[in-house]
Amino acid sequence: MATLAGMSGTDVTAMTAELSSLLPLWIGKIYQYDNATFGIRLNGEDKARHLLYIVKGVRAHLVRSLPEAPKNPSGFSMYLRKFIDGGKVLAIEQKTVERVLIISIGKGPKEFRLIIELFDEGNLILTDENYVILNALVQKRFRERDVVGGAVYSMEGQDPSLLSYDTFAEQMTADEADIVRVLATRMQLGGPTSEEICALSGVSKSMPARFATEAQLRPVYEAMIAYLARLKSGSDPVIDAKGAFPLPSVLREPKEHFPTFSAALEAWFPKPVAEAVVEAKVKLSREERIRRQQEEALVKFEKKISEAMEISEIIYAHYGEVQETIDVLAQASAKMSWQDIARVLKGADTPAAKRIVSVNPADASVVLDLGEKHRVTVFVHESLEANVGRYYQVAKKFRAKKEGALRAMQQAVVHPVKPKAHGPGKMKAKWYHRFRWMETSDGVLVIGGRNADQNEELVKKYMEGGDTFLHADVFGASVVLVKGKTERMDEAAQFAASYSRMWGSGAAAGDVIAAAPSQVSKTAESGEFVAHGSFVIRGERNYLRNVPMEVAIGVQTEPSLAVLGGTPSAIEPRCTVSVRLRPGTFEGNDVAKKVLRRLKEAVPESDQKMLKAVLHTEAVAAFVPPGGSDLVES
Length: 634
Fold this sequence. Notes:
Layout: H1 9-20, E1 25-32, E2 37-43, E3 49-55, E4 59-63, H2 75-84, E5 88-94, E6 100-107, E7 110-117, E8 123-128, E9 133-136, E10 140-141, E11 146-147, H3 165-173, H4 179-185, H5 191-201, H6 214-233, E12 238-239, E13 244-245, E14 256-257, H7 261-268, H8 273-283, H9 286-317, H10 319-333, H11 338-347, H12 351-354, E15 356-360, E16 365-368, E17 376-379, H13 384-410, E18 436-439, E19 445-448, H14 452-462, E20 468-472, E21 480-482, H15 489-498, H16 501-504, E22 509-515, E23 520-521, E24 536-537, E25 542-548, E26 551-556, E27 562-566, H17 568-571, E28 577-586, H18 588-602, H19 605-611, H20 617-621, E29 629-631
Helix pairs in contact: 1-6, 3-6, 4-5, 5-6, 9-13
């Protein structure tokens, strides 16, 4: 059943069958309207056109018309066009009975798969024919899987329609819950579909599964197989009081029948924002539109306040579990990298490990599922009370916004709400952005000090057990920390060499020292002195020899707008345009201006306005190495 929250797995089953019936198809234009919505024009035989509308994490179905195409195509939509525009749709499939739609596309000698995820926050992922990820709208590492370039997209899972009765019965009776809950969770059918199957079978949904005999399980199994088969063979879509269904429910009266499930979904879900705005301009006066926007904002503010307060109560209600998580992970992070911690959690079968949904190494936080309405983000290096305080601050911020909106409405002061611009927004500021920083090709954070104070801060406050300490083999070089294990230590070493005093010497290459955090100390030998920002490395040193010095500075447009800088092999794949630097003669500020001019010349004129907020001299200068530089000619 599709509710306003989104489509279910069985809805995707019906939609897969509906789309597959239209084959053969070819990929036409691909549009991205904002960070969540996409449109794909599918061309059929005899000049037929089918318009697929996608809201990641919510829905994917055909519509009668797509919103107006954005004037400036996004970087991710351009990337998809490059690989699959004009390609032939070979198959449209579903991953087991999950909320995952997979479109297989052949273009020339190659085959690609566009994976549309409709669960949680959703995603669009492009892989090769072997499910190796080429790119994704949102790249992220989770506890149970990695959605990053080069990782393999897992197709493991159980399709209940393919189970034998014996396997079905074995799994059902192994569970402590009642029949409807086991169908919903273990068989991944969701609540409404599971209730429907119980009603069709004539078996009480509250029957404890472990005590069910063949007399109860056999009808449930046959009803499940028959229901899933009907979804695949043809449906009778309806809308009722609860939502849009591919089949009429025996539990509720349908309000309206539709010729296709897409038509039912289009009628059930709100219109796309772009269409709703156009309609509002026609029907509503300017004052009415502003009033409606203010009312909608108040609802959103109230929801944010309520959610923040509920989460703070959840933390206190699970005080022991949250405190245990903070204590254990804080101790572990002093000895292990966050990648190792995520790996250990993935293989663990303890209740404590199972409640950790995802790990976020960049800000040392984890997301917990405590069995409540909301998931909880906990920052490991902060106390439980400080974590609760974060949610109180969120509630305080939105209360202030709510009060401001109410005052404006009472005083009849008109504050037009600017429509959100299409395309990605500016990269959100992170704690490590004030240091020198980059991410390696395999997504590991590398940070370095800009001065002696930052060197001290990095070692004392941010160095953890699983990190690698890097230092160019020259006096006064920056401290560089590699935050976890990486297969591209060469990129981190080049970063450390390039952002050191070796750059100013004009040398083309230099050596870099690597050490474990346990080897780094502030304590000097007897009679010696360790300067502010410097450290002693004890024990065996690992030398990375003849590391070439070169950096790239470029403009990233997806998933957010930013100027990035660092090792060329790590930076250039993330950027639409970039410039390389080598040790040379031009002073830093002059180099920043030259790089800025080169980047602006390379950026398409249509993107200039979008990038104005991020592409400026200060942003570029932050990634220029200390000392003279020359631009490398293309």
